[in-house]
Amino acid sequence: MVSEKDFIATNYGTIEKANFKWSAPSNIALVKYWGKKENQIPANPSISFTLNNCKTITSLEVIKKENVSEISFDLLFEGKPKEDFKPKILKFLQRIEIYCPYIKEYHFVIDTKNTFPHSSGIASSASGMAAIAMNMMSLEKEINPAITEVYFYQKASFLARLGSGSACRSIKGEVVIWGNHDETANSSDLFGIPFEDLHENFKNYQDTILLVDKGEKQVSSTVGHNLMNGHPFAQQRFAQAHANLSKVKAILSSGNIEEFILIVESEALTLHAMMMASNPYFILMKPNTLEIINKIWRFRNETKTPVCFTLDAGANVHVLYPENVKEIVLQFINNELVGYCENEQYICDYIGSGSQLIINN
Ligand code: DP6
Hints:
By secondary structure, the chain is α+β, with helices and mostly antiparallel strands. The protein has helices spanning 86-96, 125-143, 149-163, 221-226, 234-254, 257-276, 287-303, 326-337, and strands spanning 17-31, 36-37, 41-42, 46-64, 72-77, 80-81, 106-114, 175-178, 192-194, 206-210, 308-311, 317-321, 346-350, 356-360.
């Protein structure tokens, strides 16, 4: 089994300077990661669709420096210095330093931007951390050309996880499993692995993200995960996630969209139920979230269109449906749901293939 020690870089060389650029997508969980142990180890396994359009594009300029006593970097957002993003990135670099000891030998200029609006309430931490991790692995490959492709991607996911848990599912497409799961060979708490057996029915599966509340998250994910410590239903929830992952895998292979809908919606509501039953307790849905859910249920009943929803730890609604009903669902969204979105805003996305290299020199 792969262990943390396997990801400590050794026998690497040095370079004077380099420039890399990667894009990394966001992802949407079907079985949710909610609760974690020390060192970003998930309390239960999860599975997600990697998205295509919602992504972070990050360049990393690497310059060899003299003073190797501390981590140093400039952080730019859309080309301009962004001091308030720095502490989070510094914490990330400090966390990964033991696995990437070369970090202190270089000064970095990190320039990052998102393809989705900054204040859209969409978490940019998954795509953001994944994009930095990919760049870091490009640097590692440059100073140690012997590393294999398997190691490159596994370690990228491993590093991304240390920045934000769900980021480890943003390295590869189209469907990724993260967390030890008895019924999934090679699954690991340390990194995500691709799910290879996706049925035709789920190819190009659509995710239209309805922006119900574009404000700051009411509960940060760190606080949210902590609410599962000592939660009265924690053990049952973790056991349920294991069972649901087995079911979702079977469904994604068999192509049964009706069963898919039932589990995916149940997972979303369970995530919110956990928060409502926490101490302290939170309601992260807004009235418009519920309006949308009810409209989706009515539309599905009346038209038999296989459309369903999932939620993150917030009020926005991800509307999931197969590509062959795209036209009718978009019409439904435009006619009946946009009125519940802030400024009538929504983002059309679908399953994508993971991070992509843009520049390497
Ligand atoms: C509800 O990955 O944002 O979206 O590890 O603290 O950065 P940290 O948490 P994060 O949690 C995501 C929670 C979720 C469910 C999921 O994506 O699986």
